[in-house]
Specification:
CATH class of the largest domain: Alpha Beta
CATH superfamily of the largest domain: D-amino Acid Aminotransferase, subunit A, domain 2
Number of domains: 2
Strand content: 25-35%
Oligomer: single chain
Distance between the termini: 22 Å
CATH architecture of the largest domain: Alpha-Beta Barrel
Radius of gyration: 19 Å
Bound molecules: 4'-deoxy-4'-aminopyridoxal-5'-phosphate
């Protein structure tokens, strides 16, 4: 495995960042998770745009432009001779001293890992996930914008632990007002009366790249989609529910807090979306090997 760090490639054993890196000391940094299928990177432009927006929001100078970053990512995949997989691209504030002041970090650290990821067991894609509501709330806009895909995932991790302790496959996170935000690493959708619903970004969801793809597919299939504020009641009483994320792709949900959703098995709209999603991932994206 070849890992990119600041313009050089290293073997896995030698791919190391400093203990003085503020990404480690303070979670000061941003990242992206990006999939590639069949020799093409899916939605590279959208991931780059979000990465640079996240960096801008936290005053982090990445030290390279979007074309250069895209090329570094493609090169990392090429170095590993992969055609299908998952890339983790991380930009930290870089090395500094032991104080939190980012002004003492002269240069960002950039590393890129091209590998594989499996988020949920294969049978959950067939039969659907069980989800429980977590007590840990999504970070409020007033603390850190949930739009920033930062290296601070501790509250999502605490929610994930709660879900695991409850024996569920995933955890639902609410915002401070009690409205549905998203799951620990995925956006959430419901289907009812031929319409698709998902909470607005303002409820505390990350602006998921896969979420945006669902909007495109819905438009293509002529299914109305909207973003009302949602409560758990809306999910309990939905006909279908599913989650989206780069790593998760599109996965059905059949239970929330031990209430069976709809028929208790993945519904027809979810299945159509999954089929179309796979068509898009297989046939579109930035070509890696030309
Ligand atoms: N919400 C959170 C908190 C996430 O970390 C992610 C990405 N894993 C998503 C939603 C889904 O976003 P995307 O479709 O861009 O991967």
């Amino acid at each position: 495995m070849k890992i990119y760090i600041d313009g050089e490639f290293y073997d896995k054993e030698n791919a190391k960042v400093s203990v003085f890196d503020h990404g480690l000391l303070y979670g000061d940094g941003v990242f992206e998770g990006i999939r590639f299928y069949n020799g093409r990177v899916f939605r590279l432009g959208e991931h780059m745009a979000r990465l640079f927006d996240s960096a801008k929001a936290i005053c982090l100078d990445i030290g390279m432009g979007m074309p250069e970053m895209s090329e570094a990512l493609l090169n990392t995949i090429r170095q590993n001779e992969l055609r299908d997989g998952y890339v983790r691209l991380v930009v930290t504030r870089g090395c500094g001293d032991l104080g939190l002041n980012p002004a003492n970090c002269p240069r960002a650290t950039v590393f890129i890992i091209a590998s594989k990821i499996t988020l949920y067991p294969a049978d959950k894609y067939e039969n659907g996930l069980h989800v429980v509501t977590c007590a840990t709330r999504r970070i409020p806009h007033g603390a850190l914008s949930p739009m920033v895909k930062s290296l601070n995932y501790l509250n999502n991790i605490l929610a994930k632990i709660e879900a695991a302790q409850a024996g569920a496959g995933e955890g639902l996170m609410l915002n401070e007002q009690g409205y549905v935000a998203e799951c620990t690493g995925d956006n959430i959708f419901t289907v009812k009366n031929g319409r698709i619903f998902t909470p607005p970004i303002s409820s505390g969801a990350l602006a998921g790249v896969t979420r945006a793809v669902v909007f495109e597919i819905a438009a293509e299939l002529g299914i109305p989609i909207s973003e009302p504020e949602m409560t758990r009641y809306d999910i309990y009483t939905a006909e279908e529910c599913f989650l989206t994320g780069t790593a998760a792709e599109v996965i059905p949900v059949v239970r929330l807090d031990n209430r069976v959703i709809g028929a208790g098995s993945p519904g027809p709209v979810t299945k159509r979306l999954i089929a179309r999603f796979h068509e898009l991932t297989a046939a579109t994206g930035t070509v890696i090997y030309s």
